[in-house]
Design a protein that fits this description.
The structure holds 2 protein chains of 2 kinds.
Chain A: E1 6-8, E2 11-13, E3 17-19, H1 28-37, E4 41-43, E5 47-48, E6 58-63, E7 66-73, H2 82-95, E8 100-106, H3 110-123, E9 127-131, H4 145-148, H5 151-164, E10 169-172, H6 181-190, E11 194-197, E12 201-203, E13 207-208, E14 213-214, E15 225-228, H7 233-245, E16 253-256, H8 262-270, E17 273-278, H9 280-285, H10 289-304, E18 332-336, H11 346-354, E19 359-360, E20 369-370, H12 380-384, E21 391-395, H13 405-411
Chain B: H1 10-16, H2 26-35, H3 43-47, H4 54-62, H5 66-76, H6 80-86, H7 93-96, H8 109-123, E1 137-141, H9 145-156, E2 160-164, H10 173-176, H11 185-199, E3 202-204, H12 212-221, E4 224-227, E5 247-249, H13 250-260, E6 269-273, H14 277-288, E7 293-298, H15 309-317, E8 321-324, E9 326-332, E10 339-348, E11 351-354, E12 360-363, E13 366-369, H16 377-380, E14 408-410, H17 413-416, H18 421-439
Parallel strand pairs in B: 1-2, 1-4, 2-3, 4-14, 5-13, 6-7, 6-13, 7-8
Antiparallel strand pairs in B: 9-10, 10-11, 10-12
Helix pairs in contact in B: 2-4, 4-5, 4-8, 5-8, 6-8, 9-11, 9-18, 13-14, 14-15
The chains are: A alpha/beta, B alpha/beta.
Bound molecules: flavin-adenine dinucleotide, flavin mononucleotide and iron/sulfur cluster (3 copies).
Flavin-adenine dinucleotide (FAD) binds next to α9, α10, α13, α14 and α17 of chain B.
Amino acid sequence: MPDLSINFAGIKSPNPFWLASAPPTNSGYQIMKAFDAGWGGAVWKTLGVPVVNVSSRYGGLNYRDKRLIGFNNIELISDRPLSHNLREIEEVKKRFPNHAVIASLMVQTRQEWHDIVRQSQDAGADGFELNFGCPHGMCERGMGSAVGQEPKILQMIVEWVMEVATKPVIVKLTPNISDITEPAMAARRGGADAISLINTIQSIVGVDLDQFAPYPIVDGKGSNGGYCGPAVKPIALNMVKNCAQHPDIKLPISGIGGIETWRDAVEHILLGASSVQVCTAAMHYGFGIIREMTSGLEQYMVEKGFNTIYDMVGKALPNVLHWEDLNMKYKVTANINEDKCIGCQLCYTACEDGAHQAIKLNAGTRVPEIIEENCVGCNLCSLVCPVEQCITMERTDDGTQHLTWKERTAAGTAPTVFEDEKAGGRHHWVPEPSAALGKERHKTLPGKARLYSGETVLPAEAE
Amino acid sequence: MAEFFTPTTEQEFAENFAQLKPVMNRTEALYESSRCLFCFDAPCIKACPSGIDIPQFIRQINSGNDTGAARTIYEANYFGNACGKVCPTEVLCEGACVYNLQEVKPIEIGRLQSYATTKVIKSGEKLFGPGADNGKKVAVIGAGPAGISAACELRSLGYTVDVFEAKAQPSGLTVYGVAPYKITNEETLAEMAYLQAQFGYNTHFNSPIKSRDELEKLEQKYDAVFLGIGLGKTNELGLPGEDKINCTGAVEFIAELRQHHHEVAVGRKVIVLGGGNTAMDAASESSRLGAETVLLAYRRAKEEMGAYEFEYDLAKGVGVKGLFNVAPIEITGNGYVAGVKFIRTETSDGKVLEIAGSEFVEPCDMVIKATGQAKQTEFLGLIPGLKLDGKGRIIANAHTGQTSNPKYFASGDAWNGGAEVVNAAAEAKLTARGIHAYLSK
Ligand SMILES: Cc1cc2nc3c(=O)[nH]c(=O)nc-3n(C[C@H](O)[C@H](O)[C@H](O)COP(=O)(O)OP(=O)(O)OC[C@H]3O[C@@H](n4cnc5c(N)ncnc54)[C@H](O)[C@@H]3O)c2cc1C
Ligand SMILES: Cc1cc2nc3c(=O)[nH]c(=O)nc-3n(C[C@H](O)[C@H](O)[C@H](O)COP(=O)(O)O)c2cc1C
Ligand code: SF4
Ligand code: SF4
Ligand code: SF4
């Protein structure tokens, strides 16, 4: 059995799955229930200055039949009395001494930071997470993402905290910034023990078409909120990777953003996270999802022969290069498996309208055909094909050549001026614009019923 | 078998005849529509005789534009709601859906279609209207799918339309023939009322056109006459004993059933003669009416039946048993049906041969003849110059519907010899345009 336990910057946890600071960690009741269900740790809903919340607070992004592929909120930090939260932290720690209980904090002055760190430490918290990420409400008061966007201030506050903290300090970063590594480095300079990312992304998740107001709607009005859920995973993964690859950061990373299954967690881990945090998925499906996550992770580790989480942390990083270091001589071409093809012709329209006109239709069959010399190997057709493994991208170079943009630049073979003979796009086949006219077969359809052929196949005379 | 208790109330009837394709709720429609791939040059459209732009309306449902979806459907097919429920979708659109090739359940196109149209019918929202009056008039004989579709299209082209119908209700076999577990009377008639309100054609019920006199009046008063008269009564078999009480034609039996529901009685043991879709319907319906045994007797082998496989499966599913390679030679009994005398058969070179000496009597107390509908050749003979083919079908141009008497146009069962609602609706729409082209010359 692989060992799922972690020691994250000194915070011990039986598995890498933590609940992120959010509504699921609003109370001791919930956190005990979650630990009971199998979660390894919890970052308490942020404690701090007094706030008042509005209703409604959440907006959802649904796609076709899928609910909440994206989620947003305009909620603030904990609105419960600090003393209640502290008392509950103490109780949770008493009953779950081996689970990670992390106090998320957000206050303003140096004195306030000192006080709240000491109080949480006394209550038994295993560590702290400084909330420099909240993108709505708190930033207007000079906290949250307002701090996360100002590396100097961020560093100063981390320093204040480090003056009194005897437990590990994690800095939670906001993605609402152009270069995530800048606040990450500021956290490092300030002496933080770890970073966690991402907090929510400033967003408008949708607009009500009848009320003409953004979601969530508060008495006919709305505000920008913080975006999270499955849809933000790609952004989170990229930022985790950026921090993990940066030579000057070198801090443990707690990956957050779009984690719903063990797969999402593994992706974060392979890109450098050594603990992961979950919010939206727990809000959507409850604490029970942890069973699928731990069992999936365990199974994966067994299959790959990983004994500990640390065997896999950052495993994908060496394969994430800069674009200029990619091999330009590598070439793939689309290939359709005729037996699998169901004839939906989505690949045809995609390549025809959205790519390189490298697929053609032939009379008498619905299976499209790749025009190999036109195919640039972009992948689009294989992405739209609804049949697993029906369109595959086959390697068509001979594997002997390797040439990168960087190497071309060094060798002086990179194009440098407009109309440069060495530039791309010159050797592709592109149809003449006029060939587009009258092409779309769909154009003649209904509007007013397609002309009925009248060639009814008469049914066999009923007996 | 007695899978069904004899229904004695409307509610019990509704339970025994529960809808095979109940109308979807919003969630079902959302989920199902989300699966559609939006195929290019979609095979489902090609398989639909009325050419509805299926991926378009499915996407409209998925994006919350149910009204737009209904419009897309009705633009191609005025019986859009009925077709969603009564079409043999298994062999039409849904049978062509690309998901079949992946062994995945095809999109439930029929139910999605009824979902959108039911919604718009319920709301009464006006999607269409008559075109500007062009001063011309067309008479439509028959208010079946063909007649009503022609009336709608002609109205949208600006004609004044008078529909003459022998029966008391519109929609023809959709309300007098189709099995009640496919569509309810309320649903059928609601669509008819909706169309009438949109297009404003005039309807004359209980007004059969029977005589040369009546036809002459129509010829004088109208610029063209549309024949949407469908087929006639059940064919006579010419067997001894066919006149016995409880020996009935399927079309007549089903018409009774559609109108009087549980008040229609069946025997305890019913023999249905025939192997077509109507035979399957009649057998299934007898079983649902509480018959203890229903036997389907067919002249040829099971594989040679004309009925769709899914229709036979449906009948088997409610306990109907098959008796193959038997030909009826006499209905026995003394005044009432007591049994059917059969002779065993075999097929050779496509011909049915009787096996001498193999006669036997299968007892029963009801016989339903599902042996095809007769053509209305006598009535059609009253129209000067109107040509019929060897099978009694009206001969008409496949694109314009014009018959050999230029003033007369035809569509539907009377022209195609008996097909489906969707064929009648699609043909009639085209014929209405044929009339328009003819009268615009
Ligand atoms: C038992 C049975 C079950 C069926 N089940 C299905 C099914 O599940 N799905 C499906 O798609 N199709 C089904 N069909 C076929 C479908 O009902 C027909 O193809 C369709 O109704 C044909 O439409 P129509 O307008 O041509 O004729 P009809 O529906 O027959 O309409 C003709 C109308 O004309 C009227 N009429 C006839 N003569 C005159 C006259 N001289 N004067 C005035 N009015 C006249 C009739 O009363 C009738 O209302 C079934 C048919 C039968 C018999
Ligand atoms: C394959 C691809 C290439 C793109 N190339 C460019 C580009 O050359 N210039 C640009 O301004 N934006 C480019 N974009 C960004 C798009 O214009 C757009 O801003 C972005 O995809 C977000 O819109 P969406 O969510 O509708 O995709 C590209 C997007 C994609 C998917
Ligand atoms: S997208 Fe795939 S299944 Fe559809 S036509 Fe193309 S190859 Fe065939
Ligand atoms: S890989 Fe791109 S260019 Fe090649 S066939 Fe597919 S969509 Fe077209
Ligand atoms: S064939 Fe099926 S998946 Fe394709 S457009 Fe039609 S209903 Fe949609």
